[in-house]
Specification:
alpha+beta, 1 helix, 3 strands, about 20% helix, about 60% strand, elongated
Length: about 70
């Protein structure tokens, strides 16, 4: 039986929400092993001068707790 844990990470990118999600997973993977899934909880964007300048995501990362 596997034990899973969920953490929440906020990340951003100047390119896209997809890239911001990749940043979140890549950053989490530095200290967390066995990542199983990434659930996008929220997405938002920063707008300056009527143009999107930053994409933001709030991601729930699920990983297996290894004994």
């Amino acid at each position: 039986m596997a034990v899973l844990k969920v953490i929440e990470i906020m990340a951003s990118s100047e390119k896209s929400w997809e890239d911001a999600t990749n940043v979140a997973v890549k950053t989490a993977a530095k200290t967390v092993k066995e990542i199983r899934s990434a659930y996008i909880k929220d997405m938002s964007a920063v707008v300056k001068n009527n143009k999107i300048t930053e994409f933001r995501v709030n991601v729930k990362i699920t990983f297996e707790v290894v004994n």
